[in-house]
From TrEMBL:
GO terms for biological process: signal transduction. This is non-specific serine/threonine protein kinase. It holds the Pfam family Pkinase. Residues 26-280 form the Protein kinase domain. Belongs to the protein kinase superfamily. CAMK Ser/Thr protein kinase family. SNF1 subfamily. Its EC number is 2.7.11.1. It comes from the Eukaryota.
Amino acid sequence: MMTDIQIIETEDATSATTAVNLFGKYELGKLLGYGAFAKVYHARNLRTGQSVAIKAVSKQKVIKGGLTANIKREISIMRRLHHSHVVNLFEVLATKSKIYFVMEFAKGGELFAKVVKGRFSEDLSRHYFQQLISAVGYCHSQGVFHRDLKPENLLLDDNWNLKVSDFGLSAVNDQIQPDGLLHTLCGTPAYVAPEVLSKKGYDGAKVDVWSCGVILYVLNAGYLPFNDQNLMVMYRKIYKGEFRYPKWTSPDLRRFISRLLDTNPETRITVDEIVRDSWFQKGYKEINFHGGIDDDFALKDYGGDGNAKYINAFDLISFSYGFDLSGLFSDSEISVQREMFMSKETPERIIETVGEIAEVENVKVTKKEWGAKLEGQDGYFVVAIQVYRLTDDMVVVEIRKKERNDGSCQQIWKDKLRPRLGDLVYQPEVLVPGDGQDYV
């Protein structure tokens, strides 16, 4: 799956205004931010004109950094979260060397940028804290623990409403150890909970509540409760819960923050208790949301028989060369090598062609709806083919090959079967400038 990439270069090659036409769908513009493995750009949907944010992740850097599992988990997490105060993920695209997260654009920028200009009033602090807890509580209900909540990861949309972002360090229920706790050390030092520092395991929900407490303190005070140039000194303050309230903090807010920044996770206030608290309740309007994976991201039935399926961008990434995300597939019946190609032929025609090839090559074929299984006479050669609907006029053909130690399966597929399928493969016209490398 290649893309039409057009580069509009400015005089300065590093300029943030460099524009890129990506996949013929998005025009990338200003660089919004960057990290060790990714860059985030403002972009425009060429069809609708909608502003989006696109995070371009380097596959090579991720693989070298051993963060493949983090990217898999981030995609899996974001596809299941749909809440008005969580940044929405629209789709995921991929090239040979990059993965692109197409996300909701938060025009207001980071909440952090507003706090550094001056502390918030108690009412405004409460307003944003209510939106934060609504999002965090929802994430917990979906089995997701953020683990890196801080003002830099809280964005504002064009209506100045809060959006939780950056789920790269998030954990899910599947990562909980037999002792019922998480054990991976992560998070930003000034916002990390004391039980994380103890390295004895921690409850992801309670760690998020602690971070929310630090955020609330920062909104009200304009500075951190725990801070020191010496990291170990700061950690000791966190572990002991040593901090002071600014003089303008109301008694009710002091009481509330003390419950959030309780160093004992067993007695620390829970999200349910937060929502019922009198300080929190002032002016609070409960936000309705729906759980589960959105229909747009789920595999959809196609046609009347319910067997043919749409494939989506999350599944498509699993086939990306050099970056295996096969863990996102629920079907793990056989451990195989995978290939895929795109075609504009109908699924029925593709399966019919597979049957014709099998007959010529004297290979046994078992057909099913939009799928086929090819078996050699000796029982060792096995190829499973499945067709998925990508768009109304485009399908993706997935090939799974059960490999034999002597490589005979690969040879039969490569020399006999795959060449005969060549006429079915869709070959888009590719326009790549210069040396053909990704420029984002």
